[in-house]
Amino acid sequence: MSEPLVVLKDIVKDYRTGRHTVRALDGVNLTVDRAVMAAVIGPSGSGKSTLLNILGALDRPTAGEAFIDRVSLNGLSEADLTAYRRRTVGFVFQEYHLIPNLSALENVLLPMEFARLPAHEAERRARELLEAVGLAHRASHRPNRLSGGEQQRVAIARALANDPPFILADEPTGNLDTATGEQIIHLLKEFVRTRGKTVVVVTHDAAIVAEADVKVHIKDGKIIGAQAPVVR
Amino acid sequence: MGAWRRGIRNVYRNQARAILVILVLGLAVGVFIALAQASAEISTRTRAVASVVGTLIEIRGAGATGMGVGVDALPEESFERAKTVRNIARVEKYLLQRMQDPTRAASISIVVGVQPGATLRVASHGEVGTPSLGAGRLFAAEDRGKPVAIIGTLYARQGGLKPGDRFTLRADRVLLQDRPNPNVQLEDAEVQVVGIFESGFAFGDNQVFLPLDFAQRIFKQEGKLTHIFVTAASTDVVGQVEDDLFEAFGGKADVISGQATARSWAKALGSIRANGVLGAGVAFAVGALLTLFTMALATRERTREIGVLKAIGASNGDVATQFVAETLALAALGGVVGLVVFAATGTRLAAAVLGVAGASLNPQTFMGGENPASTLRVNLSVAWSTVAYAFGLVLVLGVLGSLYPATRAAKMRPVEAIRHE
Q: By residue range, what is the domain housing residue B291?
């Protein structure tokens, strides 16, 4: 059995709001193997998004240690965390968050530009990814000319641009109708199956939960249930 | 695509705001170039005045004011007395009389007796220039004592006169200030036009030159002068020559140095220039502040986008570069608009600045040579160095204006930026 991609040990995350400290994550331990789709579920305010932020190195834990692909995020400098976000992880957001004045192709090119990939190589790869998400014919369109489902597919292509092993998706079907949401789920699932990506999805969507290899229940900052064998 | 290209493209995201910033910066650049142009012109004029009038000294009857027509004329021997002073290059004598002809639209005219070969000096309300001959000829030695005249273009036009024509100077129209001059009697005198000059100024072009001895005769001023102009050998000795002349005339004449005039010009024009620099500075400061606020606003509006860029791998440098590029693009477009603003209005603005300078000064009467207020024409060609300087300045302001927003954007924590509402 290969090494797990994600290992979280006793992760605590506190937020200060005025005089008060709010504990968003309270001693989270989690291990996620490679090439699986894990769904993180729980009520609003339970700590799902905070968990995602820590996995994506958008935020640092107050205590505990996070290992992604055998590397501890705790010891990394800001520049190293930037490199981690660029190379190791891809983000998919609920509201797509495409850059509005860039075309679909240019949006997919962005992470490769930040990774200083040669332009011709980057464009070849961006077109290939748009092809993979079924949007080759919409490459020159700006986000406001694309439907919600198309925008989310562009966002998925963007997340895969630098071929990261790890995809983090925050409510990726939250703004989509059921049929379009299912397309997105199948697309993510396909990348798990065909490209060996590990996808962690924060969701309320029962369809995603049903498709997930792993379900992680979180409440009040604690994992209250996880399905073996990929989550231990 | 690169952060630079992306930043430049971002200029078009809020077009109304971009246009406002570009116009304000453009106005600042246009005003700056115009004022720089006016300033350069002021320097040129000041140097010209210093070089031309710097050696000129005027002598006129004590107490003469305004147009220089005094109650007390100078005796003709004053001319010889002036010539005895050391370190002088040239001495010229004049008899000036003021006349009024109510039948003409430009009723007030100056009649000046001048020696053949002497400088034709035009007197006006602060407009003084060196006339150029437009038609006919100048006085020659054989014109001495003859009823001939060189007239200004306005005088010629209003009298329907051309070289060869004759006209009459009327006895009842000689003035002392605004009243008939009791000290001067004139017989009606018919004179023939031999030349027509042009000075570029209406009042100057309403003037009549006569041979000095003829003028003295018809005005019953034989042996009298109103003005003597002494040109010192060099600017270094003007002070000494002025003192010597004052001593030679024993206080019975006013001795006025051109250098004092030049100094007065330089001071007044310098003050105008300083105000111009201040104006350009204010315009640039307003432009820089507007740029700063605009970019700060853009940073705030795009906070979530900045978070997304960081989430997908943008470094702080990538984010900052994008905002600097956007600001520089705004500044560069402002620079281009500034050139257009200058091309459209700059020359008039520069001339207006010089006009203000001219208006602030006392009229210089009966003085030859260049005078800054008299020559409000502004050179249309702009020095490339001025344009480059203006562009450089607006780009520097762009960089300064982008520092805070770019730094703020670069330092945003991605998690907070993405959460931003």
A: 2-49+263-419
